[in-house]
Design goal:
- By secondary structure, the protein is an alpha/beta fold.
- It has two domains: 8-159 and 299-339, Rossmann fold, CATH 3.40.50.2300; 161-296 and 343-376, Rossmann fold (3-Layer(aba) Sandwich).
- It is 41% helix and 17% strand.
- The strands form three sheets. It has a nine-stranded mixed β-sheet, sandwiched between helices.
- Strand 12 (323-326) and strand 13 form a beta hairpin.
């Protein structure tokens, strides 16, 4: 997997960040499965509070729906709510993991009169081409969740992705040491090599694992974050060397694929596996004990921050940020909003429910998970 350096420079404490539109709660990658799209015309939005808001039109391109459920179940909803509450016209579409469709959506939004374009790229080349076309038309761009290398975005809104990786790695180390395991090889099942976030996640978890005294076993990336490919790749990894003590999988989808392989070998729950995104499936596995940890990224906060930045740009204002991220291709320091992730183990699954991100009914779905929910008072 190609590695690219990304320097985070936080100019103010992230915990002190105040964003007017923030209010509560990539990982991900791509998939060949197209997702449903939706848009909301101005007439369906709440009345604009000012003429500037009324003139604003924001286009959003989400990446897919198969690599992680978050894009359709969480991001679309929270962005829709934020734009509607502000009385801003918006158009949210999903590229369905298809780069040609992503380009078509980009061109359509530019010709459709958006004055701000927010994208979650499928890869930096496609994303940068879109951003440059938008900039040529005087349209401000926002990189949402993933930095588009060479894209020249006005603002980047995401979680501190090295910190996300660190949370996975330290979580895995905790599970291993809780089980009395202090040495051994950990396999890495990384995200897509075309996703800059995957590079940053790996940077965080690989360091955490090595610093704790464990060695890196096999190290493979999963094209397009494809869960089916992940299963095949990990099955080959495990067949080559089954004497591993843990698996650092870069999101819940990849973690689920690895756990399915371990289950076939009667090792699910015996070899700890990581994930991220706090998907319902990932949280269920954490409750069951087959997944060691997931990482919760309060997506509502991310979506609200991105919507606030988009609305500010659409009005000709400067968005509030709390740091910069260096684009390793352009050398540009991109003004950024960087949020803090949270490691989720069995004993704090409640935190995700309390934040309104999911419900007990969605995660206490198997006998083992129900038993854990009863023990933890999750209902």
């Amino acid at each position: 997997m190609r590695t690219r350096s990304l320097v985070l420079v936080v100019t103010a404490a992230t915990s002190a960040l105040v964003l007017a539109a923030c209010g509560g709660s990539s990982s991900g990658g791509t998939s060949s499965s197209a997702a449903a799209s939706s848009s909301a015309p101005a007439s369906s939005s709440a009345p604009a509070s000012s003429s500037a808001a009324a003139a604003a039109k924001v286009g959003v391109i989400l990446p897919d729906s198969a690599s992680s459920a978050r894009w359709e179940t969480a991001d679309r909803k929270y962005l829709t709510d934020a734009f509607t509450a502000a009385g801003v016209e918006f158009d949210i579409q999903n590229a369905g993991g298809d780069k040609a469709k992503f380009t078509t959506l980009c061109d359509g939004m530019i010709s459709g009169g958006v004055n701000v374009l927010m994208i979650v790229n499928l890869d930096s080349d496609t994303g940068a081409a879109c951003s440059k076309k938008a900039a040529a038309q005087g349209i401000k761009t926002i990189d949402y969740d993933r930095l588009t290398l060479g894209g020249g975005a006005s603002v980047y809104v995401s979680f501190d992705n090295v910190a996300v990786g660190t949370a996975m790695g330290t979580g895995l180390v905790k599970c291993l040491k809780d089980a009395g395991v202090t040495t051994g090889a950990v396999d890495l099942l990384n995200g897509s090599p075309t996703d800059n976030n995957a590079t940053l996640f790996k940077q965080g978890y690989e360091k955490a694992i090595k610093d704790a005294g464990f060695t890196i076993g096999q190290d493979q990336s999963v094209p397009d974050w494809d869960n089916t490919k992940a299963g095949t790749i990990f099955e080959q990894m495990f067949a080559k060397d089954p004497n591993i003590v843990g698996v650092n999988a870069a999101n819940d989808g990849l973690g689920g694929a690895a756990i399915a392989v371990l289950a076939k070998n009667n090792l699910a729950g015996k070899i700890p596996v990581t994930g991220q995104d706090a998907t319902d499936e990932g949280l269920t596995r954490v409750l069951e004990g087959t997944q060691c940890v997931t990482v919760y990224k309060a997506i509502k906060k991310e979506a609200d921050a991105a919507a606030a930045a988009a609305i500010a740009l659409a009005k000709g204002e400067t968005p509030q940020t709390n740091g910069t991220v260096k684009d390793s291709v352009s050398g540009m320091d991109v003004p950024s909003v960087l949020l803090v992730p949270q490691a989720i183990f069995t004993d704090n699954v409640k935190d995700v429910i309390a934040d309104g991100f999911t419900t007990a009914a969605k995660i206490c779905t198997t006998e083992a998970a129900k038993a854990a929910c009863n023990k933890l008072g999750i209902s």
